[in-house]
Amino acid sequence: MPLSRLKTFLEHNGIQYTQQTHATAYTAAGVASVSHVKGKEMAKAVMVLADDKLVMLVVPANTHIRLKQAKAALKAHQVFLASEADFAHVFPDCEVGAMPPFGNLYGTPVFVDEALTQDKEIAFNAGNHRELIKMSYAEYERAVQPQTVNVATHTGHVYDEELMKDRGF
Length: 169
Hints:
This protein is an alpha+beta fold. It has a single domain, classed as YbaK protein (Alpha-Beta Complex), CATH 3.90.960. It is built from seven helices and ten strands. Strands 5-2-3-6-9 form a five-stranded mixed β-sheet. Strands 1-8-7 form a three-stranded antiparallel β-sheet. A hairpin with a 2-residue loop joins strand 2 and strand 3. It is globular, with a radius of gyration of 15 Å. Residues 157-169 have low confidence and may be disordered.
């Protein structure tokens, strides 16, 4: 069960959380909608390759990654969105695309967008497309100890022109 690793970690560390089952949803925005969670409080884990190293960026569901800012924040020469093939094997107990924002449980560095740090409570996928975890942001920060970055935007554009040129688009 995908949730077992996460639940064990949370319980071992005395972290309070609630669990919610919801209708199957495959996007963070969809999960927020069916779970009645504000998009700004729904944390989505976005996997990127920063100089060929897998990194987890955690941003609000109602935003997108600004790759140019991610490149600067991660001090990388190149940052690209990772494909499922790049990361599925790292999260063997999770459904692809539903990994919780706990990269630390999988040996992956975690960077959280500063917008999420303003929320009293956050919600996120629990390793599958049907379960959600809610917890205080303070507890999340204590458990994961992510680095804070400014990489999210509310515009609909994930790629910026410079980085698209780098990839040959």
